[in-house]
Amino acid sequence: MSEMAEVWPSSKVHVPFSRPEGIPGNLSGRVRTSPLQKLYTRTGSTGYAPLLPAVPWALRHTGVDVRELDALVLSHHAFALGALHTLGSTDVPSIAYVHSPARWAWDKQFRQNEASTLPSQAALTALSQVALRNEKRWAPRVTKVIANSSEVKNRIERWWGRDAEVIHPPVDTEYFTHGSERKEDYFVAVGRLVPYKRVDLAAAAAVRAGVKLVIIGSGRDEARVRASAGQGVELRGHLPRDEVRDIVREARALIMPGVEDFGIVPVEAMAAGTPVIALGEGGALDTVRPGVSGHLVGKGGGLSDSEIIEALASAMQEFDDSRFNRAGLEKFAESFSRSTFRSKMQAVVSSVL
């Protein structure tokens, strides 16, 4: 959203609710919230999940004046398509930049993996019905659909029945090119410790391979990750951004064992001069080019957890650092830069207008 705001600096940004500290500097004074903001503030702004069913309604009450619009650009994960209601029967075009259709709504297996208890499964199932109704109603009405990866494009075609153009998300590649030039003898995994990221598989693979793995991040899946960890696996928790950059920059390779929609962390690693060992599914197929930016394991999918662990362990044991150089990785990462994203988004919206 921040990068889109750079393309259209006079535009307003409408959201159902927000935290002041979460608003980037370039959006200061431009963010408009809905009546849901009061409830979000009263609950301490600590979690938004209980408010999600009300988001489609909230997006109809953020103060959008359709008479001022040349186009409506949506940054979509779940429920944002409800904002199309504000356009009514006008001919104002709409562009949806889709991070993913709601996987937990469309994919029953994904939903079961994310909810570990019966009450949480019931709650997520009920929420998924709201999300499905919202997406089925509004997805056919979007003028132009943009996917953030080939994986998301495939989901849009499968679940929404729409074609989509791929524009990869903006990555702050410039920030990650600065730092230490040395390499140390360890691998690294970075991200929230949540079930679908499968960091537990990376931990188990490192133990199997007998290599050192540094894990950065925290989340509700931490207990499972710790249970898979052993000698040589360090859980560092949440760290400041500059410290994360240095640890990633000095690592032999970043490990990505889960299926991502796109996956910004791998591109940040490449910008830092660090190759990526990733499961050959999802967004990694767009960013991990074998022999150029990293190595893919289990391409094509269908591997069991034990097979993924074995494949990752073999990749770490046999990893050849000499195949990759910092300059080549940094150059490859530049194709995902913020300036590239802005120019592509501007071109798409101009074509629609």
Proportion of helical residues: 25-40%
Task: Give the CA-CA distance, first to last residue.
Answer: 20 Å
Q: Mean of residue pLDDT? A: 91
CATH topology of the largest domain: Rossmann fold
Strand content: 5-15%
Helices and strands, in N-to-C order?
HEEHHEEHHHEHEHEHEHEHEHEHEHHH
Order of strands across the main sheet? 3-4-5-6
GO molecular function: glycosyltransferase activity
Domain Glycosyl transferase family: 177-317
Keywords: Glycosyltransferase, Transferase
InterPro entries: Glyco_trans_1, Glyco_trans_4-like_N, Glycosyltransferase_grp1
Question: How would you portray this structure in words?
Answer:
One of its GO terms (molecular function) is glycosyltransferase activity. It is a single chain. The mean pLDDT is 91. 40% of the residues lie in helices and 12% in strands. The protein has a four-stranded parallel sheet with strand order 3-4-5-6. The protein starts with a helix and ends with a helix. It is built from 16 helices and twelve strands. The chain has 353 residues and is α/β, with parallel strands linked by helices. Helix 9 (199-209) crosses helix 14 and helix 12 crosses helix 15 (326-333). Helix 13 (284-287) links the parallel strand 11 (276-279) and strand 12. It folds into two domains: 2-170 and 337-352, Rossmann fold; 173-335, Rossmann fold (3-Layer(aba) Sandwich), CATH 3.40.50.2000.
